[in-house]
Amino acid sequence: MPLLLLVMSLSVAHAAMLPTGVPPSRAAFYARAKEFQCLDGSARIPYDQINDDYCDCADGSDEPGTSACPNGHFYCENRQHTPHLLISSRVNDGICDCCDGSDEENGDVTCPNTCEELGRSHREERERMKAVRASGWEKRKLMVEEGKRMKEEKEAGVSGLKVEKDGMEGDKNTAEKEKNEAEEKEKAVRKIHDDDMLSKRTEKRRSAATLLFNTIDTDMDGKITLEELKGLNYIEKREDGTMNEDALKRFVNENGDADIEHFITNSFHSIRQMRRDHIANEKREKEEKENGGDIKMDEMEEVEEVQEGVEKHGDEEDIEEDASPVEEVDELDDNVPFAPFSDEDNKVFDAAREARQKYDDIKRKMDDIHRQITDAESFSSLDFGEDLAWAPLKGKCSDLEIGEYVYKLCPFDKCTQKEKNGYSETNMGTWKGWESAHSSMKYGDGTTCWNGPARSTLVSIECGDEDELVEASEPGRCEYHFTYRTPAACKDPSIDEVIHSEL
Which residues lie within the region annotated Disordered (predicted)? Predict the structure, then answer.
């Protein structure tokens, strides 16, 4: 018999002689003898008392195959899959924990042997992950080259950008001076125009107010009294139709009258509006009377349009042939049509617009150069690894949609969350550095929760052949956890295989 087969046969035979639940690594301690010494040296017991369902050793080492000792462990051999240890309380508890069913040998439950199937799936997954790591490692090499190129470009470009920015400072100052001068001229032209419009509007308002004042001042003494106001048929009355003298007093001074200046300042707007409302109501009542009190919908809309017209433009309708003098006042619209600007004015506006555009273009370009300089200078302050493999991830964001939310990770920048159909994002933390070098990132000082702390996110990094955010959860209030895969986290598979083979 070949030596290898002989050794394997002896190992199998030796293992078969071991008490149930003993791992091969402890086989020497359980060699059949008259007595068994507890592994912690606390006692010696007859060998036959091993696995007798009574805990004799303080460390539970005499009951590897039962649940008698709370601190004991049971070894699942799990041939064709992965061996592992169970705590003793899970032995013969009616639940199949070992894939070979060896933890439930008392007959209370029948456990199928699923080790072959699980082992096959495990080996397939292991091969898949091996392929992912190999692919990721190759992509990582490209990321290293990209990181080096980025660093070289940024460092080489900074000096040139600073020279370009300094050279534009003079152009910016000149453009700003020209812009300010052009805007001063523009402001002066607009002020002349606005002052003219205001003067005309004030003059027209005064004319309209004077006209209405004269229709109310029946004795033509240059003052309006309470008695004259009471004589107006459009002055608001109480619900019972009586005159509200207290309300009228707001239109006159403490002496009980009002001159033209007081009228313009304190009364004109309100009295004019009451007059317009009265005209519109009379128009509606007339329409109702002519239609027998039944106004159709389209007719009602027409009446409303008339009322709107009265409110906007004053009374432009004749109410009745025998209308009173008050109702014949039809020039109360104090609006002034917009006066167009002259060609010379428009030239001033065009010059100001061009000056602003010139200044804005120069400033925008200088701001962009400043941003590039800042970005290049901050590049060296970030830990992208000694070989710069992590550098290409800066500015490259990954999204993950879960339920009603979309989570986003932008490495070395921030984490966000937003509703799927929403627009605004919630800041879940900005870059604070590596929590554990190149294996987990921390982001903090995000948007503060209601009555809670500022949001923060811990990002666990895994090897993957693509840059992708694969998991997002909230294990604590306003504390989030992401899982992110990237080739940058992949190690050399050849070195990894050597380490595992040695273990």
Answer: 165-196, 309-329
Q: What is the reported pLDDT for 304?
A: 54
CA distances to 172, 186, 205, 252, 354 from 360, rounded to whole Å, are 9, 17, 42, 55, 10
What does the block give as tokens for 194? 């606005």
Cα separation, 494 vs 500, in Å, equals: 10
Q: In the predicted model, what is the mean pLDDT of the chain?
A: 85
Residue 11: pLDDT over 60: no
Residue whose C-alpha is closest to residue 26's, from 7, 5, 40 = 40
- Spatial distance between the Cα atoms of 115 and 122, rounded to a whole number of angstroms: 10
Amino acid 57: pLDDT: 94
Q: How many residues does the chain have?
A: 503
Q: Is 51 exposed, middle or buried (0-12, 13-18, 19+ CB in 10 A)?
A: middle
What pLDDT was estimated at residue 459?
97
* Percentage of the residues of the chain whose pLDDT score is greater than 70: 87
Amino acid at 175: A
- Tokens for 38, please give them: 């507890």
Q: Which of 469, 337, 323, 325 is nearest to 396 (CA)?
A: 469
CA–CA distance, 82 with 88 (Å, rounded to integer) = 19
Give the CA angle between residues 31, 37, 39 to the nearest 5°.
95
Nearest by Cα to 475 from 447, 451, 455: 455
> Would you place residue 500 in the very low, low, confident or very high pLDDT band (cuts 50, 70, 90)?
very low
Q: Catalogue all structural domains in the chain, each as residue range(s) with its CATH number.
A: 3-113 (no CATH), 395-502 (2.70.130.10)
Lowest-pLDDT range of 5-14, 371-380, 428-437: 5-14
Start-to-end Cα distance in the chain: 29
